[in-house]
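Lab meeting, action items carried over

1. Structure of the three-component assembly. Owner: GW. Status: complete.
Input record:
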Amino acid sequence: MIRPFGSDEILFLFEAARWTSVLSLAALALGGLFGLAVALARVSVSNVLRTAASGYITVVQGIPVLILLFLAYYGLSTMGFDLPPLIAASLSLGIYASGYLGDIWRGAIESVALQQWEASASLALTRGQQYRYVIIPQSVRIALPPTVGFLVQLIKNTSIVSIVGVVELTRAGQLVNNATFEPFPVFLSVAAIYFIICYPLSLIARRLEAQFNAYRAG
Amino acid sequence: MPIVLVEDLRKSFGSLEVLKGISLSVERGQVVALLGRSGSGKSTLLRCLNGLETISSGRIEIGGHVMSYAPAALRALRKDVGIVFQSFNLFPHLSAAENVMLAPRVVKKTPKREARELAMEMLGKVGLIDKADVYPDQLSGGQQQRVAIARSLAMQPRVMLFDEVTSALDPELTGEVLNVMERLAAEGMTMLLVTHEMEFARRVATTTVFMYKGLVHETGSSKELFGRPSTSEFRQFLGVTSD
Amino acid sequence: MFQLQFAPALAETPALLRGFWLTIELTVAAILLGGALGLAAAMARNMGPRFVRWLVSAYVELIRNTPFLVQLYIVFFGLPSVGVRVSAIQASIIAMTINLGAYAAEIFRAGIESIHRSQIEAGASLALTRPQILVHVILAPAVSKVWPSLVSQFILIMLTSSVCSFVSVEELSGAAATIQSATFRSFEVYIIVGAVYLGFAILLKSALASVGERLFRRPGTAPRKAKLAAEPGGLR
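Predicted assembly:
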């Protein structure tokens, strides 16, 4: 039965957008956690850790998110874990995010001047204390704009988990399109909702970046 | 008939008036040194003469053109008025010869071979034929500045403007650039130069213009002016800079 | 216990290679067309009339803040609904071109803006027109400055091509989907395909880097290491 594309359908899309947000936040949390570990490993004193982290970043950044999703999805089920699609999706998006966030944060940590390490070491701080009190606080300012910028990429990439049956915004758009056969209004509405979520974040990222540059120049 | 004529030129940046009514007349073949402390407006005046700065009021006639900021008119003027900058401003992605060839090829549509010949001739004038295919970042500052002069000359300008062209150079590289300029002057090129090289101004410039607080404070033949400075400001300026 | 069995998947190597070849074709088409579109957009933004500038920035923002998959759906399902027939492959190339064009436009813009004012003045003082200055004075140094960012973006569009399997394009990911449903060795298939993407990404990156060196090399000059970092992100 063909239905018109009306307010019910729009409402349905907005409800599905909640799952887009949930997925994004879950992936951000996981990716942030793994990513911090990757970043710290990447700048650690241990050769093995550094190489492993750098290999991890290369692999994650060299494989499409879609394939990461399938690897998580089928890999886990091959090993006998039958996870709900939402969990597998969050996990794979988290891995994807960790590869990029780890790289962004590594850059931020490395951009803190060497003298800061020396100065804090001369105060007899342990390496952990150096990170905790001196290096990380300074890196955050540098890392924030690209991190927010990456969040936009992450939100957009949640669209592909529609393929494993999670009814997030894009999957909802497909369903509505199948019922209404009005692809232009349906997918333009879907795009508009993504835009409403992503554009403010893009603006924030740009403003933070400008502030940071002004701070550095001043 | 003067080849450069400036009448009551005023130029403000916001509320700050930098040029407060400059009048100036330069004959063909004259070499005019613009002297003055930093902030006296001499560089601004020079940039106005090439249309790089728009004037607030007054009138400029140069190289047979009346200054107008319509793009086509401005380009026509710039074909006849060359400028060399303090910071060389060579194009880093082009070799020395390509830097010189660019404007003849693009603006005057000169065929490539002819443009190349012209470039070699101009590089010859500045003594850099052997550096024709070298890129700017492989040249010394003095060599870069000589290429920049050749680049301007390739348009066969009627007037050349030099904006503190040796200020960014080490003393040992300054001489080679000044030599090129002196030869140009001897060939009869009309030149206006902002410079801190007092000895060069005295010896090579036919006319010296001393600017002070946005006005022409004292002007005359270089011999006279350097020999008998009539204002205390110019005397003080000479005293300060010749130390 | 589970065991990895690669044999069934490897038996489908010809199908995988066909898929990989299509991935390469899609990528090359997108890089050439999207790169050109991005350059044109950046130039229009730099010297076009106000209306055109506004149009370009609207295009850039709209594309950068919506998912590629939705853009692909709009092209693939939307165009036929208004009577324009496009094949899945055509739709994919159109969507990839439009997508890359927006990112490339931003990168080119950053490059153009990084060129110092004095270069533009030097061009103007030689009587060059504004378009001539852009083409002859600004463009080459600008592109060489942002080449590393462009390369990262090209890699991302290659990875993004996997999404075209959603509209049944049999590129590498599409081929993988077909094979896994026939062999039931899904995990193994995706391990192989993941490795192929990774290898291609590494290869493409070094190939494009040496293209850059060749394009912007000045004889007698050591290749410079451009410092402009790529915009981080994944599939756009």
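2. GW to write a short summary for the group page. Key points so far: Chains A and B do not touch (no CB pair under 8 Å). Chain A has a mean pLDDT of 91.
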